[in-house]
Write a structure and sequence with these properties.
- The protein is α+β, with helices and mostly antiparallel strands and 214 residues long.
- The protein has a domain of 149 residues: minor pseudopilin epsh fold.
- The protein contains 4 helices and 9 strands; from the N terminus they run ααββααβββββββ.
- The chain has a 5-stranded antiparallel sheet, covered by helices on one side. The chain has a 4-stranded antiparallel sheet with strand order 3-2-1-6, with helices on one face.
- Strand 7 and strand 8 form a beta hairpin.
- The protein is extended.
- The termini are far apart.
- 15% of the residues are buried.
Length: 214
Amino acid sequence: MSGTGSRNSASSGFTLVEVVIALTVVAILAGLAVPAIDSVQKERIAREPVNALALMAREVRLRAMKEQRPYQIVFDREGFRASRFFQPYGGAEEFEELQLQLEQLEQQQAIIDASAARGIPTGNVEEDFRREELEAGLRYSAAYEVDPSILCSLRIWNEPDWISLTGGEFRRWIFQPSGMCEPMSVRMENEGSFFEVTFHPLTADIQSERSWVE
């Protein structure tokens, strides 16, 4: 009886060879999974600014059509920003002025709200402020800061070559009240990944895409 029990116990367990084989298989699968996870992470980092730009372009186009006023997305080494299109020949300083105007509007709004909370009539002050705010179209301002590890390049329809934004380059992407925009392509590159997208001039949607991730 004791001999039979011993044989049953041995047959129900694992031999050393089986354990080694199982551990080897687990190690191989883990080794295959790590590069795959790293590749997905690189793709996510490189695609994120592309997705953010596509969403911003859609919003800007809708605003331009709704308000029947031109809008813009500007690119520099820090990333890209969107606002109403004010000065055809303005540069980066235009957005510094815009930010200052936005802060002034917020201060004016805070004063109006505080006065209303205390029962102080604002009268025509609030009405004038609302009208000026609507006319100026300053309330909308969006920005996306591109990770410094990502190299961003542009090619707008009238540019013969790709323009790298690593230096002091400043480029505009204009959206007309008709909903049309300038044809433009964008590249986002970092270590081990590459994305190039072209936007459709009629819809501002992504028309074509090329990408690879190591």
